[in-house]
Queue: 4 jobs
Job 1
Amino acid sequence: MSGREALERLVPWCGQFSPSVGVDALEPPESLLFDVTGLAHLFHGEETLIGHVGREFGRRGLSTRIALADTLGAAWALAHYPIENLQFAICNLQLPGSPIVVPPGKTRAALLPLPVEALRLSADCVETLRELGLRQIGQLLRFSRDSLATRFGPELLVRLDQAMGVVEEVIAACHPLPQVEAETVFEHPTDRPAVIEQALERQLEQIARQLSPRRQGVQELVCCFRGETGKAGEFTVGLYRPSAAPRHLAELIEMQWLAAQRKLAEPIASLRLSVTVAAPLELEQQELFGDRGQYDPRQTAILVDRLSSRLGRSSVVRPRLLPEAQPELTWRYEPWVGGAQRRPASSAKKRPAQRQTFSHCASCKWPLTRPLSLAQRPVLLEVVSMAPHGPPLAFSLFGQQHRIERTWGPERIQTGWWRGRSVRRDYYRVETITGRWFWLFRQLSDGRWYFHGAFD
Amino acid sequence: MSSFSIHRRALVSELQEKLRRWEEARRPAGAARTSTGCDQLDRLFPDGGVARGTLVEWLAEGEGGGAMWLALMAARQACQEHGPLVVIDGRGTFYPPAAVMAGIDPQRLIVVRVTLARDESWALDQALRSGGAGAVLCLTDRLSQRGARRLQLAAEAGGGVGFLVRPASVRGEPCWAEVRLLVEPCLGTGVRKWDGHLLPERPEGCFAQKVPVPFSDGGKKGTNGQRAARCLAVEVLKTRGTLASELAEQKRLELEIDDETGIVRAVARLDPAAARRRWSGA
């Protein structure tokens, strides 16, 4: 999550302090801006207001540097460079980091000792000023406006005016997007599929209409329903790629609907669909000449959605390889829908596969050293081995005897003690007299043999 | 031979011909074909490759037989331009690192983990029907005859390619796949050169020799220092729309998989009978 997203998430919560809350327009953003004009009396004074804000943020585990001033520019400057203005700190101890309140009309006095960086200037401008020995805002004010504009460009003058209150600056308030949802309350509780289906379709059309001005589609949707006795149920539908097509969404909902309705076991009184995650729709140019051989990622997305919807997200997965030596820990499955990598396949193609432990092309070497089927748990074997530390000669697996013709190995795989139970194994690939290949290992701690995989 | 018998034979062949034409017509017109990655293996398929919109069955007996590997190699080729590979894992034993080592891109691999037979059949049907999968690979021993027929129709409708690895016990059942292949492991005999010459085989009982110095090669060398080369025999059991008598001339093929590169190549094994025929000019 970027800094801006993190700050924007706080905005709705900040509504308790001010009706107009914005996020710093600078990049990277690091400030939340509150318009508290005319609000101080509600909190019994500005000091109490600011103390309350600090305490509430502290309760969320967030440390703050708060300043309140006549202008946005001055508040920003004092919040970022508070050291020189301890006389305005409301805390008696006058510690650095205490909230600062600049009384009305004292803005100019508070700004004078601050460094020029406090004016939200670009790095180039600050550097030029510093080269000329201009370090404090007070020094700048000795120059005439004309000379400042000609020497340092319009930026400096604008920022100075904003801080001093000569030019008005407004807070671009962030308004959280309204909840996208649709609800149907049936006049009579019903369990007729046709009626419910029609209601679902109507709701999905409503949702699509709400999302279409934003050019967004549904990425995750919660379907809540209530039975005639008030018994409630809900399920979540996740999508691999955002979609606003009511038909596709209806199909995904219907896959889970039957099971959910069966669980409720009574007629439905109300039905609500709420979009929990909406994401921008990807616009793809239609091809002028359709090529049947070309791969269409949209079809894949529909397939993934469909499979995930019926079988569950954790059943439709992709492997992520991990830098582990122990064979059963060398990969982890991640769901295609709503997983850690929630991004469409088209953008995945553009990014290099940096998180893989090895590129799949480079790893085409020695592909036969790992079996395609790995037992969920190693199976203890009875083997005949001639030499105490040599490869096996014969073994019995699932009631079948196998005599070994050739072996390749050993390949020692061991893990460190810091992983908990350490593993020390000597792996052998074995070929039986019938030409079958298996992957066996001897546990070095007790010398026992295990079957771990088959080269199916 | 009676005229009735001749007449019956003519009727049977006429019906077979009709059946073949009908089957041919059901195949997607102008369906693209992909190679399996091995020319000689391609020749076992009608029209020299895996056609989109069809099923290919690989029958194997027991574990460790190598059919899944061949199917995976063919699926990798089929996926190159046609979307991700869908692996339906009904046994929970699929080991993705091995597939990645075999050249499958993990970002384009959809593993569907199912436990119930009906879910497995449904997932196969959806993946074949959708057209969003480059190839579908499934190791299954619980597919019914009707299920197999439905899958064929799904593949035809969606243009997907299904590679089904099934137990050899189904060889007597009707085949809805384009090709039904039997994969049998055979014993690799020493280090074989690609031209078919064999190097001397290792002496009997050499597995009792001292093992190579551990960890020197990560288990790539064999008991007598030889590289592993896996041998598999592939036999065409049935081809859809083709009569048994018209099956590809070479119905059986021996393949060898190179341990280092994973390349699948046909092995030229001298057939003594063929050599004799050649000598005698037959």
Job 2
Amino acid sequence: MNENYAVPAVALVVVATVFVGAFGLRISRTTSDFYVASRTVGPRLNAAAISGEYLSAASFLGIAGLVLVQGPDMLWYPVGYTAGYLVLLLFVAAPLRRSGAYTLPDFAEARLASQAVRRLAGAFVVGVGWLYLLPQLQGAGLTLNVLTGASKPLGGIIVAVVVVATVAAGGMRSITFVQAFQYWLKLTALLVPALFLVLAWQGDGAPDRPFDEPATFREHRVVRIDAGLDLKLGRPLSVTATGTVDGERYEDERVRLPAGVHRIEQGTRLSFTKGDPVPVADRGSNGGMSTSLAAGREERPLYATYGLILATFLGTMGLPHVVVRFYTSPHGVAARRTTVAVLGLIGAFYLLPPVYGALGRLYAPELTLTGDADAAVLLLPDRVIGGLGGDLLGALVAGGAFAAFLSTASGLTMAVAGVLTQDVLPSRGVRHFRLGTVLAMIVPLAASSIVGGLPVADAVGLAFAVSASSFCPLLVLGIWWHRLTPPGAAAGMIVGGGSALLAVAATMAGFPGTGSLHALLAWPALWSVPLGFLTMVLVSLATPGRVPVGTAAILARFHLPEELAGGQVRAEVKA
Amino acid sequence: MSGFLAGLCVAVLPLLAAGFWLGRRTSRPSSLGGLGTPVEHATFETLHTASLAAPPLRAGLTGETARRSARRLRTLLGTDALCLTDQDTVLAWEGVGEHHRDQIMERLGGPLETGRGEAFRLDCDEPYCPLRWAVVAPLTVDDRVHGALVACAPRESAVLVRATGEVARWVSVQLELADLDQSRTRLIEAEIKALRAQISPHFIFNSLAVIASFVRTDPERARELLLEFADFTRYSFRRHGDFTTLADELHAIDHYLALVRARFGDRLSVTLQIAPEVLPVTLPFLCLQPLVENAVKHGLEGGGGKVDKSRITITAQDAGAEALVVIEDDGPGMDPDRLRRILSGEVSPSGGIGLSNVDDRLRQVYGDDYGLVIETALGAGMKITARLPKYQPGVHSAGRLPRE
């Protein structure tokens, strides 16, 4: 990849983001434009902003990587990420808007009138936010590493610094425009190169069925193994190796490897010739965590798939940066319309990453070996098209990837910093918001340097699982069940969300590597979500005296259209 | 290995938080223990318990507040059971022997009538029930009996009678304060009504005069202005709800400015920067319009001599969980001391009541952190900043769908 084009593209995206954020509103308006100025954010603009904030590194890079490595089963990821908004539309969007809550803790307080539940919800917002920020920073590191060869933490640090600086300086004032701009940028950055890639693929004779047979190298290719791994060969294979294979040093020598498992040490270069089948990395034995989730998936494919579906379907509604955006809708009906538009926008976007995944399987199969499968989207334009065109398209994709990190990371940082300032740090004020911003970013940044290469999409899946087990019961029961009590809500969040959090922590720590227990821990949503619901219902039923006063009135406000609710208030005043 | 380390960190963090919380919860008594003699210690304990019982009672005597304060009050008195009643029911029973509820309620008729405390023997069929005596002390606010505090004990004790009387008097004081809070709220409501009434005369006469001047020369303009006038007065005189959205308030300001501009023509120019994100923010009704009116008055009429031209800037920004509204004029400004006196209610010149009323209402609704911030000096214009939280419990507009 030619960094002469990619680095300016990334820099351009950063500058454009800061510029639109800071100056999008500075264009002064005179009184004749008053109506233009006071027009609320329309559903389409808001939907683009929500999509811009939502489509993170996991969507931009991660899905293509997973499809490349593990095939079409992984299409459940984009389906789940999209369908989450369907659940949001059906059960949550309009009542949430009508509740008047800005953040999830606000909702907990509005519904249950309890400071304790509010603080607990705040703690989970921070937890989910940090879990979600982690893969964004890792993705940024990976991108910069692929583009320029810089060390991996650098990209994450750059994103962290840019986001903290703009958010803390109040540069995200016109955040709706920034995020909407980012959505269209991301769509363009994937769509345009995808069109060229498909054209090139057709010019290549349109080779199909990339997932049917073991992938083969389409040309002579040198692969550098960054982390030691075990290769599993189905039949003998000849490669040219520089480095250590099975404990023996080779210096640019031809090696014939018999069928079986071979240990390749770190830093080894293997040259494959055209037509060689791509060897499979033996999972579960390479010590890192990058494949631990995949191992669980292989052992219990049905369970893993359902766990993923449940987490993504129900987790979307608890994402802190998505929830705050619904406040921008002027009323409940607009919130619903917005959600429908979001479904369309991200549905369109998610058609693209699988294309990259499939083409990556054909043209960059060695990525399954190096553990950098997430980089497939970045490498493909150069690999397939090449030349100046490939460089320019690669630069476009790189810019889009950085837009993905910046938009999601800034949205999350604002949400987490808001909760930290309001509910955790002692007193309020601008200075504390800045402190909150730094705190919101520094924890995931530190964690990203400790935690290694969990695939980006999998790490996001874990954040979804925690969100689905804690906030989904709170929101759904809070909106639809009048007997919910503060102790019930608190117990449900602690048991459901807490157990999911522990499972996630255990998975990240690589405990235990295999077996059904590992599958249970790696895909916690399937048991932790029902557990959360059950605890919330049972504890609420056990504490019937603690149903907050005025629950009926609050629920009426959640569910009645604003005009009717206004009429009700009028009737009360008259009575 | 690094993965294990990370997982360990994630697992240890909640534990640390829990430990921190527990430590804070348990450290309080021991830190008190270090303070002085046992007598002083006991005094501190008592004062601390009393201070914990006070906040719920400040919201008045209801089932919920009684339940929350009864536990602290029982600790304070150290009895086996304690109950709080209003005129006709037991609001909260704390401790053992709840089967005495009805019996106590029957005996309360006298004390609630006379407002004098008494002690009586409780008859009980259960052999192990420790409650044999009940001490009743009425809770009075402004010499009216609101309810009673009943402490139950195994035997008659003069100390308990005395202590119950004192605690009841202390509770009565809290209830009187609650009453005071309510009066304050009512006062502010009355002020809003006064403000609505205050808008009318001056503004209505001027507006009508302006419209009249256009009737012959430019009938179409006159008609438009009349419609603006109708819209503005409809908004200001609306009867329902204390809260509105920023979008609606800005619409009203727009109508108001249209009328004012018709009167002053080119002498007034207005610049607006409104972030669309903050338009759904809920705020107290007629909270910004008085500020704009104030800016117009100051910019064009203030400081004695007439000013030729005035420029008003209105900005509404998105600032995290708050909306920031700034209204700025380049008029002659005001002496900060005079402004301070106006805001504290010492002097009430014409137009000043708007500012202090808005300030009071913002503080009342959002707390003292959210009062108006006014920057001004003689000859330097005036800049008024209002911070509006996007969410505040109890604040929601009786919203309406905007006209399509």
Job 3
Amino acid sequence: MTRPPIPLLFLLLLASCNYSHNELLKAPEEQAALRTMQTRAYDTVDEQKTMRAVIATLQDLGFVIDDANAMLGIVSATKLEGGYVRVMVTVKRHGEKQTAVRASAQANTKTITDPGVYQQFFASLSKGMFLSAHEIE
Amino acid sequence: MRGAAMALLLAGCASAPREPFAVPPAAAAQRVMQSRRYDTRDEAQVLRASGALLMDLGFTVDKSEESLGVLVASKDRSAVETGQVVLAIVIGVLGGDVPYDHHQKLRASIVTHPAQAKSVVVRVTFQRIVWDSHGLVSKREQLNNPEQYQEFFEKLSTSLFLEAHDA
């Protein structure tokens, strides 16, 4: 009996472990670190004003608003210029005196995990809000 | 070394901007093109007029949020251009099979916000997604023709009975 060639065995091994439907509930790795880099707190309790600032900032950065819901504190937007990026932003009360803003961006089929990318977003948002951003743990 | 070459290869096929939140060089010019200011305090009236105008233009509303001044609408239209079809036929006769643009979804996203001096600023963005005759997405693009933005705001002025000012 001849043994099957090793590359074939290797392929079978690969085929057995990767199903694309497993992506459904898969969170990006290092979830906690990612959440920290995606979140900032602002010293305001005006959530509506914060959401309007988020929307205006995204528009200035070349995004088109896809959806906004004041009750749920959600804004989503898409950028088509120079590549396909989707972003979802949530706005919610943080403690007594702050509002937390979290942005999560997806480029093509991957979550963006570069802290510098999120820093740029919050730098623009802070200018639009006339407030400085605080990191929260 | 091989890893780097592989990474470059991968980076080449997916066009994701490296800095999606960097301020675009044309940010100010885009804002000017996409925005107008109307002398009214009634933001809801401006949103309603925008909705009515979009309806006149064949759009249907996908999302609306009055308290944030957001209105998103779209329409599906043909994307067939004669030149592309002729080319597809010629190549077809020669035995080849090239797709041509078939249909498109045109989207309008409108955001209003109250501005100084008792006025409301309207900012609109148009984009489209085009599918080819094989059913695949052939284009995803923002529409940046200043004349189309100008025409939109002229129509909005007419329905608001208000003059449009540069924002």
Job 4
Amino acid sequence: MRFTDEFRDPGLILQTSDEIRRLADPARHYRLMEVCGGHTHAIYRFGLNDLLPPNIELVHGPGCPVCVLPMGRIDDGLAIAAGNDVIFTAFGDMMRVPGTHGSPLEHKARGADVRIVYSPADALKIARANPCRHVMFFAIGFETTAPSTALTLMRAKAEGIRNFSVFCNHVTIIPAIRAILDSPDMRIDAFIGPGHVSTVIGCRVYEWIARNEGKPIAVSGFEPLDVLQSIVMILRQMERGEAKVENQYRRVVPWEGNRAALKVMADVFTLRSYFEWRGMGFISQSALALNDAYADWDAERLFKVPGIRVTDPKAAQCGEVLKGVLKPQQCKLFGSECTPENPVGALMVSSEGACAAYYQYDHRKSQLVSIPA
Amino acid sequence: MATALPKIRFRDPQIEMAHGAGGKASRRLIEGLFAPILCGLSSEPLADAAIVSINGADIAITADSFVVSPLAFPGGSIGELAVNGTVNDLAVSGARAEVLVVTYVLEAGLPTEILEAEVRAMGRAASAAKVAIAGGDTKVVEHGKADKMYITTAGVGRPIPGVQLSARSARPGDVILISGPIGDHGITILLARGDLDLEADICSDTRPVIDLVEALAKAAAPGLRWMRDPTRGGVATTLNEFARDCALGVCLFEDRIPVHDAVRGACELLGLDPLHIANEGQFLAVVAPEYADAALEALQSAPGGRHACRIGEVREQPARSVLASTPYGGTRIVDMLVGDPLPRIC
């Protein structure tokens, strides 16, 4: 398969792994944060930790859109749907995320009209096919998915489809990275930069991290070789005492970003003055809302939003794991009360969530007596 | 004499799609509710089919329901699945299906044309698998109370001489074989629903595997330990059940698992693991190492078995788990399917 197999070549992977061992100074400990949940998943999925020397520690970041969504927003979305006979549509990732009274899938099992869509355009299609019902799309995601929501809204407006709305939970990545860097318990040496988000926002937006914070950053793809090569780039910078932004994922990410995507986002969205992130609290200017031109398609204006605020279960340490302060297995609930089947926190739900990825691919490996040949 | 009351451990408040998806939730339902009430205190691992003794004669018996949507898809349809699924459940229990009975649940308003096409598909599949259909039952429910049609088939079969299957007979060093490429059925159904606007040149693998099973048994019956068809939940779930039942570990060699490019591509795009995707025409076999070469050769030279291969082995560790190793030395745990990525695929 093109663009996949080349980046899973065993010979090149082993060569790159050797290069990392050569570059890493055995006298120091490296903490590298992979910002994006897609990287977290890839690291566990391909067993990349097995290919790194023990003094390179990968720390999972906040880049899993399902994980950072506070439970109150899920409750709000489900309450709007239940109270107004609305068809609730969302991506598959959202479906098992627990709200106070169960996940969207549990609501569906009790009779709510909850449907999985693979794109916001599919939600609009459902609205066209059901002119007598209202269809709400529960929008989540960073800048990666925001442009497709924006395009769908533009289409709804152009076609005059009025039985469609968006409950907008889109967030932006830069304020989250800033919050992590500002966090007093955070000790990160460098960043493996998010790949998908950067296809939209480009690489230039990260320059302040290198310039002001002195942290190297390599925007990375999602195959094993991509991640390993990004680590090589970071180690080389650190060896030379440099800090700059490098683009490892050049086959997809343009340095300046995707202008057309940024334009449609600017046409449809406005920045919220603040937004709550699970485990990280309120972060200013970190999320998007529909602007006034799209008020008629904004579920938050069309319906009464309960504005439910729910504190996370006390024992669950999602926030610490999201910020990379704790490893998934260090949370008190990990693997006992909180499992992929019965998740307490969202990090155990999405395949990009650090806890789910660790649970699924890694945690029982410690029982191994010997690593198989 | 006091009888021990069966302990009900199933605590889920309501039934959800995941309980029928063949993964962890299904297992919890069966072991926590069905088995304690219906099967008493038997300690035998539960299987899709059972070998029972009646008046001294062993027979194999099984039943399966089919609720797939859409009814017809590239490579097959519900009628064909309903025959092949039951024939295969018997085959991997070490038995050749002799006779089936069929129950239809039909939704009022179903066009006769569709019903006739499915009945014909069943007839063709039954003669291909050399199995008789001896009777059955038909129920019709109001429009809107079912999704077009559901089919249940029950089958009785004759055990293949010399085959003794049990996960508990597995030993470290045993070899794991698969009869062909994985994931075709699940991905075909997913694409056939049309929700994804994805197209791929791929069809369901539904077929009877009994001839392959017999070829394997002929070459390696004394070394044949266990077989199973990895339907819902895929190879990952089936091998996790095996690992649990035999209290040993399974090591898969990831690069040796046969997967068609179209299935790999769809899985990459959708974030799915081919090991979790359903199959309807493949089976896994665990064979003693001294019989492995003969077993593989027999499979590969039987019609439809050309792509059979050796994908892993049984090890002492990690006990009760499945581990996949990559050609570059990375490893990962392969867990059972959680939840329901592909609702109603068989």
